[in-house]
Design goal:
By secondary structure, the protein is of the alpha+beta class. Helix content is about 40%, strand content about 20%. The chain has helices at about 10-40, 75-85, 95-100, 105-110; strands at about 45-50, 55-60, 65-70, 90. Strands 3-2-1-4 form a four-stranded mixed β-sheet, covered by helices on one side. The longest helix is centred in the first third of the chain and has 29 residues, at about 10-40. It is elongated.
Length: about 120
């Protein structure tokens, strides 16, 4: 007699394995968030955004103004990682969160490009 928690084709086992992989990925991202926070003033805030094909960006801003991004394979995994890390999430990357970002000369030259002496766009782009 078959156990009610498994099916003959192994679907329950595959689902459990996928869930375990998602948990491991969320835990790995949470460790990366913690490492970022510890090396940038002790805490961080962030915002989640859909990128493409289900992937999500975790934008991070440390308490010292430094910023960075992580990519998660899904919004659910990104949310789980943020929760595990205790990351304060914002709905948008504007206003209060954007005001905390510290940019340097490199970022300004890349944003403005050749207008302020930054690198030119490659030919054909």
């Amino acid at each position: 007699m078959a156990d009610d928690t498994t099916s003959q084709d192994g679907t329950a086992g595959k689902a459990a394995a996928a869930g375990a992989r998602a948990d491991r990925k969320a835990a790995r991202l949470a460790r990366q968030i913690d490492t970022f926070a510890k090396s940038h003033g002790g805490s961080a805030e962030g915002q989640l955004a859909h990128i493409a094909r289900g992937t999500a960006r975790i934008a991070l801003v440390g308490s010292d103004g430094e910023w960075g991004n992580l990519v998660a394979p899904s919004m659910d995994i990104a949310r789980a990682a943020a929760e595990k890390a205790g990351l304060t999430l914002h709905d948008d990357f504007d206003g209060e969160l954007a005001a905390k970002v510290r940019t340097g000369p490199y970022e300004w030259s890349r944003m403005a490009g050749i207008q302020v002496g930054g690198p030119a766009n490659p030919a054909g782009h």
